[in-house]
Amino acid sequence: MIIDRILFGKHLEENEEILYAVHKHWVELAKPALEVGFFGFVIPWGLFALGFNTSLFFWLAVTWSVLAYLRFLGLSLDWYCDTWLITNMSVITIQWNGVFSNLSSRVGFEDIEGATYEIVGFWATVFRYGKMTLRVMSGSHFELRPVDNPKKAEMSIAHFREQYVTERNMKDTNSLKVLLAGMVRRQAHGEK
Question: pLDDT digit string (tens) for 106-115?
Fold first, then answer.
């Protein structure tokens, strides 16, 4: 959770804690990882091993591999930062479009109508990933795909939403009791 606090701290309010983070499944990162691995490491170092072992080609292969690694690092960060943060106050949806561009929306627990998930296909069933939809009472919705273990994510949203609503109702009940007690006390003493 320390990494989440560093990456997503700017989206949190004071005293807000991340209780659960809904991330995309690693399967979305598999294709870019294979591409970067093949074109960034196998080809340049394979050519170097096949006889292009001059000093110039060595430094070209090193530079190409470093650039491929940095590209993969950027793709990994983009993959990890497309998330839904379930906090003690709300659900924050974050769509990361690069280091200097991201979109964030906050949905209060009282505005959430529900969360649903859909798992379609053989591989999605085997690797437990699917599409999640967060429905909001205003009629809009937020989607995230492919989500890692969408059933657990849906249950977490429902659990923390219920916990928030219960705590809020308790606070409201206690505030109402204090208000009514004050009114009864003033009435009993003849105050207005």
Answer: 999 989 988 9
